[in-house]
Task: structure prediction
Amino acid sequence: MALAASGCDREPEPATPPPESQAAVEEPVASRGSILRPEVKAEMTADVAPAPQPLEARVYFDLGTADLSDAARADLEVFATSIPDPSWRIELAGRTDPTGDAALNRRLARQRAEAVRDHLLTLGVDPQRLTVSDDTAQVDTPPESALPMEEARRVDLVARPAPSDASETLSNSADQTD
Result:
């Protein structure tokens, strides 16, 4: 106890800075070893290209219909030709405005997404790349929303790169249980 009390009375000694010669000479990152394995030297690697951004589009519909207008057909042709790689997957999600019967709106949203899918097929898009989202049944716009009703009646399209074989293998093995 006496030792602890006597140790508290002393002022701590100031830390001595390293000599200037040590502080000024730093080893380059590439020549340093790993913290866990000092024999392994860090290496500079080539920059990794950022992942491509998804391509998104919307196709609008008239009230109560799943028929594509001429403008919608033209927009779909531009969309289909804008996809940077033919292996990209395309997800379609139909939407409706909030007016009317909810069950009818769910069917209409699905029909709209299927109409877009069918037109993409006529444009030569591989059917294996197209998915009509399970989210299609969602009615998108609540009545108090600032979004005009005309904009709520649509199909959202999102094209993304197909997952790599390695990531599919990992996700498939994670989904399996013993």
